[in-house]
Structures are given as structure tokens and as C-alpha cells.
Amino acid sequence: MKKAIFFMLFFVVLLSPVVANVCSSSQVVVYAENSLEQELEDAVSDGLDNLDINKLEEALNNSKGASDLFGGQSFLDKLKSIISGDFANDSSSVWQALLKLVFDNILSFLPIIATVIAVSILGGMVQSLKPNLNGKSIGSVIHFVTYGVVVILLFTIITHMISLTTSTINSIKQQMDGVFPILITMLTAMNGSVSVSVYQPAMALLANFIINIFSLFLMPLFLISTILSLVSNLSNNVKLDKFISFIGSLFKWVIGIVFTIFIGFASIQGITAGTVDGLSIKTAKFAIKSYIPLVGSYISDGLYIVLASSSLIKNAVGACGLILLFGSVLSPIIELVIFMLSLKLMAGIIEPLGDGKIATFVSTLSKNMTMLISMIVAVSFMYVTLTGLVMCSANII
Amino acid sequence: MFGVLSSWILSIAGVVSLSVVVELMLPEGSLNKYIRSVFSFLVVLVIISPLPKLVNKQVSFQDFSISQTYDAQQDYINQNNISLAVALQNDISSVIESKGYQKVVVSVSYQKNSPEFKIKAIYVELKNLVITSQAEHKNIVDIKSEILELVTKTANVKKEVVNFVG
Predict the structure, then answer these.
(1) Which of A76, A172, B5, B122 is the most exposed, having the fewest neighbouring CB atoms within 10 Å of its CB?
(2) Which residues pair with B105 in a beta bridge?
(3) Average pLDDT score over residue span A311-327
(4) Is B121 helix (H, G, I), strand (E, B) or coil?
């Protein structure tokens, strides 16, 4: 027993300098990390002062959904809070806003749904109750009138939906104009020359060529398909269903090819370029550290703090841009989806009670609304992918 | 592009609506089916009418050119280059100091107006050199060669870039 106590004391005495050493050295490490953090913060705030983000603030002010999601903060404030790591965890408020949006939209579409259903049921009843003298032409006149009323009612909403989609795509383009130059600036500042050479053309392609394809070619295809489906259900004689399905598959193929080729090329080239740049930065860092093993990791980090601040700003701008995109796209997509679903509901209710051709027209319209939804979703998905790739490439750490 | 498409669509819709109206107005008779077939021909004619233009390449695709590119913001790049140069100077002088040579003045000059940070030359001034007990060499030639090696390794540059002043 005595021996055991003696040994324990001996060990304590033996170990105490080691323990003290470990404690003090860890204090040194903590101190070094703190000062590094401080330096990094200074470098980041210097960088933010030199950055021009007016276009993004403008885009934020133009979109109501996004400014709700930002909680009244300006873009710069949100950037700073993301960089310093306090993401506001307010997912419950997002869900509540979502639910409110959904119910508001349902309520706003309800009168139109009710009117269309009432008119077409009335038309069907008159059709079946009409006096049976020379019946055919009276029947087609009744159909013509009912159809006209339904078309006028629905097209007031469809014109609104078209302008909504166009303005959403324009706002995404505006956000690209704000975010892409900053990302290119950051990549250039981090000496990511290979990444810049890949992403600069990809961004120009997305923001000009692809957006133009969407607004100058795919949008007219939607209009063609809608108008043809209107005309095609006007009478039994001239049927244009096959032509409408041709337009629909043209739309699908064009959007599919543009989407696949863009995402494919951007991701393959982007991943390679990002790895090359990251590797060249890392090898430089590794050379210094291996040359000056003990002090190297603390001393020669000044250069890397400047580089890392650019990297931080790049990723924060990317993240903020994606929040902005999410906020401005969410409400149009919900509106379009609810309108599409209510068209399907209308078609389902009209079909057994009223006119068959009106039901076909309404269900074709609901198919066409998926075109608008897929346009917005495709543009924002390409934007998200490109921004995400830039955020992942040429990172220092 | 848009104008061509919209006029095409309007003419299709117009012909079909006209055929429907005519059908509503016409009395029942033996002539009816001929009129219907005439209108069907008209619809087909209107639908294929833009094809010859497409074949003759009269449609312009000017709207789809890439007109605008995204360039880096030069203000940020300039400021960033300045802070990179300052940080590199501090790094090099602290590495040299850790080897026991104090008061060595290092200045980095880089290419202005270049998108990337490219080091043009590094000037090392040994006028006020203080050699402490840590130092490996006392001879000025050896010191110069050691400092040269430190600078090239730290800044990752070639030896020709480094110049000694004074």
C-alpha cells in the first residue's frame, strides 16, 4: 500500500512538468488561433469594403419574397452574418410563410374555379334541355358561347401567369448579373486561373444564351401550345391535338438538351478545374510548411489569410445568392403549381357533368402550365448548380 | 423571331376560328363537306407556311448571340494584390527573422493591371542587418545565399526574381 502511494506520488511529480507544458502549449495554440481568426476577420471586412454589391441589393429590394426571407436585412448584413457563422435558424417561420402563401393562392383562385365550373355545368344542362328542333346547330352555338366564357375567364389568369414567369426569369437574370462578377472576382483574387477560364464562358452562356432560349424560344412555344389547344377544342372539325403534342415534345427536347449539356459540361470541367486550382494552392502551402516545420504553420499564414478571406467571401456570396434565388422563386412556383392543380380539379369536375371538349381544353391547359413551371425550375437549377460548383472549387482549406 | 412566330400563330388561330364560324352559319346542305375540306386544306397550308423560310435560312438567330461577359471587379483585385504583397513581405521577413537575421527589409513588387497576382521582383535590403546568436552563418556571402534560399522557398519564386539592395 505504501509502495503504491509512493509510486503514485512519484508519477504525479514526474508528470507535472509534462502536464504544465501541455497546458501552456495549448494556450499558445489557442492564442495563435484567436489572433489568426482576428486577422481573418479584418481581412474579410477589408475585402467586403472594396466589393461592389449594389446590383444584388437592388435585386433583393425588387423581390418581396426574398426580402421576407432575409428578415429585413440588407444583402451586406446577411453576408456578414453568414461569414461570422450565425445562420439564423428560422426554418419554422419559413414553413409558416410557405403555408400562408399556399392558402392565399388557393383562396385567390377559388372564385375563378367556381365560376368556370358553374358556367360549364350550366352549359351542359342547357345542352341537354334544349328543344329538339333542328338541334345540331343550336347545340354548337351553346357550346361556342360556354366555351367563350370559360376561355375569357381562364385567359385573364393565364396572361398573369405568363407575365409572372417572364418577370421571374428576368429577376433571376438580374441576380446572375449581380452574383457572377463577384464570384469571378473572388476566383481571380485566389489565383484560380483555371477555374476562371472555365466558369467565365459558362456564366456568359447561362446568363445570355440560355436565358434567351428560354424567353425567346420556349416561352413562344408555350404560347403556341396554349392558343392551339384553345382553337383545337373550338369545334369537332379541325383537330390539332397531334400538332399540340409535337409542340409539347419539341419543348421537352429543347429544355432537356439545353439542361443536360449545360450541367454536364459545367460540372465535368468545373470539378476538374477546381481540383487543379485547389491542388496548386495546396502544394505551395505544403512546400512552405515542410520547409519550416515548427514555425512555418504559424508564421507564413499571412498570405493564406488574404487568400482565405477571398474564399470565405466567395462562398458567403454564393450562399446569400442562393437564399435570394430561393426567396424570389418560391412564391411564383407555388402560384403556378396551385393554378395547375386547380385546372386539373376543374377538368375533373367538368368532365362528368358538363361539356367534354371544355374538360379536354382545361386539362390541356393544365399540362401547358407545367411548361412554365419547368422553365423557372430549370433556369434556377442551372444557376444553383453553377454557383455551387464555384463555391466548391479552388477552396484553400 | 418572336414576330414571325406570333404572326404564324395568329394566322393558324384565325383560319380555324373562321372555319368554325362559317360552319355555324352555313345551312345544312350537300356543299357543306366541300367547304369543310377547303378549310382543312387552308389550316394545313398555314401550319406549313414558315417551312420554306426556314429552309431558305431567312430566319435570323441574332437574338441568341453571347453579347456580354462577366469580368472581375478591378477595385477588389487591386486592393487584394496590395494586401497579398504586404502579407508576403511580412511572411518573408518573419521567416528570415526566425532564422536569426533581424532588420532585413523585404519589398515585393508585382505586375500592376494584371488579373492575377504575379510577382515581378523581390528586393531584399541588408543595410541594417543585425546578426543574432541564433544565426548559422556570420559571413555575408553565406548569409546572402541562405536568405536567397529562404525567400525563394517562402514566396515560391525563381532565384532570378530576388534582388539584393545595398
Answers:
(1) A76
(2) B125
(3) 89
(4) strand
Last residue of a domain, one of B15, B46, B64: B64
**A&B contacts, CB < 8 Å:** 158
Same domain, B30 and B103: no
In this predicted structure, what is the pLDDT of residue A31? 47
Query: What mean pLDDT is predicted for residues A231-259?
Result: 88
Residues B83 and B53 in one domain: no
CATH assignment at residue B118:
3.30.300.30
CB distance B12 to B47 below 8 Å: yes
**Chain B: closest CA distance from residue A382 (Å):** 17
Q: Do B103 and B142 have their domain in common? A: yes
**Same-domain pairing of B53 and B78:** no
Provide the chain A residues 140-169 that lie in CB contact (below 8 A) with chain B: 140-141, 144
What's the rounded Cα separation, in Å, for the pair B21 and B17?
Answer: 6
Asked whether A392 and A159 are in contact (CB, 8 A), the reply is: no
Question: Residue B80: which of A189, A217, A232 has the nearest Cβ?
Answer: A189
Partner B contacted by A126 (CB < 8 A): no
Mark the ranges of chain B whose per-residue pLDDT is less than 50.
none
Q: Based on the domain organization, do B81 and B47 belong to the same domain?
A: no
Domain that holds residue B140: 74-165
Say whether A207 and B80 touch across the interface (CB within 8 A): no
Q: What is the rounded CA–CA span in Å between residue A222 and residue B20?
A: 24
Say if residue A23's pLDDT is above 70: no
Band (pLDDT 50/70/90 cuts) for residue A136 is: low
Neighbours of B11 (CB within 10 A): 17
| pLDDT averaged over every residue in chain A | 81
**A78-112 b/e with 16+ CB inside 10 Å = b?**
bbbbbbeeeeeeeeeeeeebeeebeeebeeebeeb
Which of B64, B93, B112 delimits the end of a domain? B64
Interface test with B, best of A187, A231, A232 (most B CBs within 10 A): A231
B120 vs A289 pLDDT, higher one: B120
Q: Best mutation site among A147, A221, A238 for testing chain B: the one with the most B CBs within 10 Å?
A: A238
Q: How far apart are CA A205 and CA A176, in angstroms?
A: 12
Q: What pTM, to 2 d.p., does this model score? A: 0.82
Q: Which of residues 22-51 of A touch B (CB under 8 A)?
A: 43, 46-47, 50-51
Per residue in A150-194, pLDDT tens? Answer: 999 999 999 999 999 999 999 999 999 999 999 999 888 887 888
Q: What does the pLDDT read at residue A255? A: 93
Residues B60 and B79 in one domain: no
ipTM for the assembly: 0.77
Q: What is the pLDDT of residue A85?
A: 76
Same-domain pairing of B134 and B154: yes
Q: How many domains does chain B have?
A: 2
Read off the pLDDT of each residue in A198-207 and give the average, rounded to a whole number.
88
Closest CA to A112 of A46, A158, A170, A168: A158
